[in-house]
Amino acid sequence: EKQPCMPTHPQKPLIIKTGVQFTTKVRLLVKLPEVDYQLKVKTTFDNRQFFILTNNTKVMDIEDYSNGCLSVEFRHLQLKEKKYINGTKGNEGLLSVTEELHSLSFEACFTVQGLTIDLEICSLPLVVISNVSQLPGGWASVMWYNLLTDEPKNLTFFTNPPRANWTQLSEVLSWQFSAQAGRGLDKEQLTMLGEKLLGHHVSCSDYQVSWSRFSKENIPGKSFSFWMWLDSILELIKKHLLPVWSENYIMGFVSKETERILLKDKEPGTFLLRFSESHLGGITFTWVDREDNGEVKFNSVEPYTKNRLSALPFADIIRDYKVISEGVVKENPLKFLYPNIPKDEAFGRLYNSPPSKGETGNSSSVISTPPPSQSPEPPMTPGEFNMLNEHLCFDIDSVSTQTHTKYT
Amino acid sequence: EKQPCMPTHPQKPLIIKTGVQFTTKVRLLVKLPEVDYQLKVKTTFDNRQFFILTNNTKVMDIEDYSNGCLSVEFRHLQLKEKKYINGTKGNEGLLSVTEELHSLSFEACFTVQGLTIDLEICSLPLVVISNVSQLPGGWASVMWYNLLTDEPKNLTFFTNPPRANWTQLSEVLSWQFSAQAGRGLDKEQLTMLGEKLLGHHVSCSDYQVSWSRFSKENIPGKSFSFWMWLDSILELIKKHLLPVWSENYIMGFVSKETERILLKDKEPGTFLLRFSESHLGGITFTWVDREDNGEVKFNSVEPYTKNRLSALPFADIIRDYKVISEGVVKENPLKFLYPNIPKDEAFGRLYNSPPSKGETGNSSSVISTPPPSQSPEPPMTPGEFNMLNEHLCFDIDSVSTQTHTKYT
DNA sequence: ACAGTTTCCCGTAAATGC
DNA sequence: TGCATTTACGGGAAACTG
């Protein structure tokens, strides 16, 4: 048999894609008095809509490392959709796929001292998707559930999802960046996000955000929701901007107005990096310049998307950027990363390829001090997050209402 | 049932990837006297190594358009490898996967006028692969087989594959470019290829090329074979250079020496486009320049690969190319496409995006006359090629030795 | 250890279904 | 018809296997 094959989407547990292998583990916390026969556990999925393609029964084993408690790990489980479920779908058609919550159940039956014990336990709510394009939507659901309820198993949560306080939500968002991209969001960045989501109410009081506003309805004038937009940025960072982001060189979330306010009094050639608000997964830079008549001028480039960034890393783009106007090539207009860090001091050690053939650009390796990192407390702590990441992990006796005991 | 889902790799018939759907069709050319019952056909694959996952039995139908002859089209067929075939693999382990030839068989049995007729027919040799990365190798096999034998079914062809005359082979190669990229190869291009493959013997006589030299052994000093290299170029053209190639603006196959001979007496700024010989799927340009002291100088860029070309189309790269040396930006050094076509006249109408922000570059749309196209006769004509492309198509009575008749 | 081969699965495009 | 969802499969990478 094969070995590792981690669960689906290592960064996003509790989301299972049909046809893709996942792993789950059950541990029996109560110590059974001398169960000398093999304790079989059976996993089943949901009620109607999906089923487990692969072998779903295994025998519990003593965990070698810990104190002899029994556990089973199911590997290579795979979900498939049931076809022809007499007409209607399992869940009411009002919810989107990523709002439908499912659960994995584990059953075991054994006899101790004349008692037949029937254990059943089921997982936290799971989201099932059929394509990775549904992953952001699924993850939005997991976050919302996690943030707003303590119920271990409320599969109808999204029929009437509660609102979230912006304070709580912003912590979750910062945590996403922290856990996935190595650096959370600071107050200013969160303020911009809050205003984007709620208008300028944020400052007044602790406003509430609806589920729909967060991840279902489109941002006015755009063709994507707030979360889709934010997640596209997270993905861009993960794939192409990790060092630049974790060094805190990307201000990222700044409105155009704020950007101008920040830049206008700065040295010409001062620039900052921000994420595109009009396109998914784009990053751009804006620099300030002074006209001959002394007037302040702002310039930006078309956002760079993953396509362009996979051809040339962002740091190199910054190093090599040139403006050519009216047939004259000017020198690189990017001089100081806001507020006033000389470009090469900030990006020097992030440059990758040598400057493109015959290019200017100083690639000396000035080492910049990594700025101090600090993170707020999130609703889901990084420890919890990591644990979830490890496996979908359940402890049988922790959900005691699920344990039925009957007498022989 | 679903509809189109063409066979695997539309451009490369006779290659089937496991787990990917393909289509095949059988037609009964003899007109049967009044067969009033349903004529069932069964498809089977090979003997040992693979099997057809999906439904493999269908009833023949009268083709609506033609003259009432019977045919079946199998759709959504899928191949899967048989596991545990008692120790050894089906074919001797000496051959690589792409050299193992397989066949699809069709069987039908019916009774006419007291005779039980047992029809069996089988396909041309097929190559089975498990990953698209094996496609070039598989296609090499198909070409070699097609070029060097007329036997309809010699599954052991590659245990001792014959050599090919360079004259024949070069026609096949040109045909690949013609069929897949819209323009074949001219004499000069083929000469360069011949020399690459055989050293400088080509000119002397009609040299023979071994199968191994063509697609198995690496080019000296490289980590890929001749065909892998050539096919990587074909793929690059198909994906990123189609218009430029079909307009004949890519000389492509020129040795560095020839390149210098061609360019040295030309106007400074004359450039030509050639494919990288050191890396798979790369294209570069070389231009001639004159130093202050009058000495001729040649410059080239690092090859552009699919990654870079998917970020910016090649024509735009040529338009926007600038050299920056010692802090001074010079104007675009590319002036005339060899021999003497003004750059914008050649590429003008192929420019895509507007020149990058504040860029020079004349994007006026000068229409260039498409150069006359001429193609040599190939071993496999384009008509034949297209027919193969349509479906794997067999006519039952065309392989009469496969028809067994027995009496009741 | 390693090369040839297969498996895995993301991400895009196309097909399907509602 | 249009949108939500699923299926298809190329392509890169990891896993497997002799």
TrEMBL record, chains A, B:
Biased segments, Polar residues type: 353-367
GO molecular function, one term: DNA binding
Subcellular location: Cytoplasm; Nucleus
Biological process according to GO: cytokine-mediated signaling pathway
Region Disordered, annotated ranges: 349-386
Compositional bias of kind Pro residues: 369-381
Keyword annotations from UniProtKB, A to Z: Acetylation, Activator, Coiled coil, Cytoplasm, DNA-binding, Nucleus, Phosphoprotein, SH2 domain, Transcription, Transcription regulation
Top-level taxon of origin: Eukaryota
SH2 domain ranges (all copies): 245-340
Tagged with keyword Nucleus: yes
Gene Ontology cellular component annotations, sorted alphabetically: cytoplasm; nucleus
Broad class of the protein's primary localization: cytoplasm
Family statement: Belongs to the transcription factor STAT family.
Protein's name in the database: Signal transducer and activator of transcription
Residues of the full protein shown: 316 to 723 of 752
